[in-house]
Amino acid sequence: MIITSLIMAGGKGERFWPKSRTNLPKQFLNISGNKSMIQQTVERLERLMEIDQVFIVTNESYAELIRVQVPHLPEENIIIEPVGKNTAPCVGLAAIQIERKYPDSTMVVLPSDHIIKDEEEFLRTLRAAIEVASRDTNIVTLGINPLYPETGYGYIESTNHTVQINGLEVHLVSRFVEKPNLETAEKYIQQGGFYWNSGIFVWKTTTVLQKIKEFLPVVYDILSTIRTALDGPDKEQTIKSEFIKMPDESIDYGIMEKSDHIYVIPCKLGWDDVGSWTALDRINDRDENGNVIIGHTLNMDTKRCIIESNNGKLIATLGIEDLIVVDTEDVTLICSKDKAQEVKRLLKELRSQHLVQYL
């Protein structure tokens, strides 16, 4: 059995502004540890497969960053998405190229910007998922055991139908549910059988392409046109001209919610999707006042804040609580923690005022 992986690395990480920028988004930053998030993702996968079997899909703007940060990745394993059309076209474009190089491989699909602290458990869970996915047309996803009623994640509800693989429970999925309000999320936690959707999927390349053909025929037809050009001189031009015709479709809505034989493996991985600045509260140590402090700071009567200095300049705080303060070379962000998910509003305003140099 051949195992391959696809890392999705085209996101802008806008809620991590001003540290995450258009020319250096979140996945290329050192958020936790001394390596970037994409470097850590690649290193995890290299414990499971050879680098030749690792693929990264991104846009043209970030291809050079990948070459610099992952220099041992084969050039042909960087798959360029001409325009963002959501995850289903993105995965489909990669699948036809991976299938061409590694026919009938079992493919792990995962984001480039998640933190996983328990790598041993992650690899054990992936091995179990690969074993299940390699059988027939099964699809497997990793479900994170919820630690609290999070409203920013989608959830997966499992059934009582389970099997044991390598000491892990593998549940048949009942349904995928959208991001809930707080009351609903609390019910999920109390009821049990609900897991955070990690966005990590495992399937055979042939399986995902068959599912695209079945549920997203327009996407499949465009992929078929692209596939016929992969060996020809017009490959790049065909990809560009055809991919732009793709409908905007997500894997979750387009395939996962419609398919049978989907399984979830509940797991505890020390996982975090690092969706906004408040993630630093979860992944970093806090001082005696509940602050996460990074860089050169002086803090008095300061509680439950996230403060980061990126340029050596001293940040001094006095009498503040529940704030995010991030200082970069040209921008200083001051934001209440309960507005962390809304940082993208600032970027929208910068664009409206034509202050694109700060993006």
TrEMBL record:
Residues 296-350 form the MannoseP isomerase/GMP-like beta-helix domain. Keywords: GTP-binding, Nucleotide-binding, Nucleotidyltransferase, Transferase. GO terms for biological process: GDP-mannose biosynthetic process. It catalyses: alpha-D-mannose 1-phosphate + GTP + H(+) = GDP-alpha-D-mannose + diphosphate. It is an enzyme of class 2 (transferase). GO terms for molecular function: GTP binding; mannose-1-phosphate guanylyltransferase (GTP) activity. InterPro entries: GMPP_N, ManC/GMP-like_b-helix, Mannose-6P_isomerase_type2, NTP_transferase_dom, Nucleotide-diphossugar_trans. Residues 5-288 form the Nucleotidyl transferase domain. It comes from the Bacteria. Its EC number is 2.7.7.13. Belongs to the mannose-6-phosphate isomerase type 2 family. PANTHER family: MANNOSE-1-PHOSPHATE GUANYLYLTRANSFERASE (PTHR46390:SF1). This is mannose-1-phosphate guanylyltransferase. It comes from Cohnella thailandensis.
